[in-house]
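Example A, followed by Example B.
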Amino acid sequence: MKVTVVGAGNVGATCAQRIAEGDIADVHLVDVIEGLAAGKALDLAQAAPLVGHSRAISGGADYQAAAHSHVVVITAGITRKPGMSRDHLLATNARIVADVTEQVVAVAPDGIIIVVSNPLDVTTHIARQVSGCQRERVMGMAGALDTARFRAFIGMELGCSPTDVTAMVLGGHGDSMVPLPRHATVGGVPVTELIEPARLEAIIQRTRDGGAEIVGLLKTGSAFYAPAVGVRDMVAAIVRDEHRVLPVSVLLQGEYGLSDVFVGVPVRLGREGVEEIIEVELNEEEMAALHRSAGHVRETVQTWEAMQ
């Protein structure tokens, strides 16, 4: 199996590292900056004897080497700066993702596309539109990241291992995302029984602001370690045909009462991409929040379309 990662910045290079060092697939890095992808690929290849894997790692500016990729991960685009929302990246990143998608589909028409570039749900919408692929084969990585942040913050609050926390975050990857405390547990115990409502609400808000918090600290970049792990898990589920249930931004066509919009929901992932969209039972308040989040995604898509 071969995975192509487009964009050799912090997110893309770390995705390549996680995939290769996890012995999941061979990796090809692509970047328009001359030498960047090739240099990082060579560095990763030289680490292979020390890490202990035999995966092939290559890189360059040419898309031709992406031919026959089973999965293509798109991380290309500009990152946020302090004070910027993900939507501020729309004009630049939407055009980049459209161009990248066109080029990868030309050489790897059967590849499953995973989009990471922000604003995530909108760029994923664009990638599917440009590629013409079935909805099962184009998805966005966000739910895995948002859920990981929610779990991490709950673990920090309780002083427990985040691996003992199960949680769920639905909706768009942005300020309108929908963390679901009612569905969160620690070792099987509902979080609502362990954390008082005011503190739980603060954790929910911190989850929504999780990316902005990191941008504010870094000043000149955005998160890349956690996003790369989210990509790794999705790629592994597909390449290894694991049938894992993971939160993914996917095109809904009637599920949750929503149609023609990409939002994060739990899906089952396997060799052919999205095998099943899982509909979680939501109460009236949770469903309303999910629909508001989808509404924001639609508005941003309309903003993009107006730019054309």
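Example B, a separate protein, is given below in the same form.
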Amino acid sequence: MESDRDEHTLEFLLAFDGRVHWYAQGYWVKFEIKRVQPTPERPHGLRYSFTLHDPHGTRLIGYDNAHRIQTRKGRTVEADHWHRTQGDPGSEYSFKDAATLVGDFLDEVERVLTERGVPVTVIETSEKKGKDT
């Protein structure tokens, strides 16, 4: 059973749907998250996509459960996964809870931005709904 704290964290995260965080030099992250009916592929009842983009809009990393991936062992996974680099087809991600998901994603954002010499401070936020960003 979900605790009140977990539910509060989830509601907080759901409010981020469509939010974009802008970083220096034009880098940005987008949060898409919706509550859905639980399924074997999404037992937590969430459909999400968290992505980091370069100034040209190219996705650099992402955490999502929007499509199937082929694992390195050749197994197809229809669940939570992440893309560590721009060309990474995806690796399984063990979903624990919403707070851990966001923390893991932001840790990777910090890793990539730091490698590129970009400050990790959010300089602006905006709301963008849909797939056009």
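On Example B: The chain has a mean pLDDT of 83.
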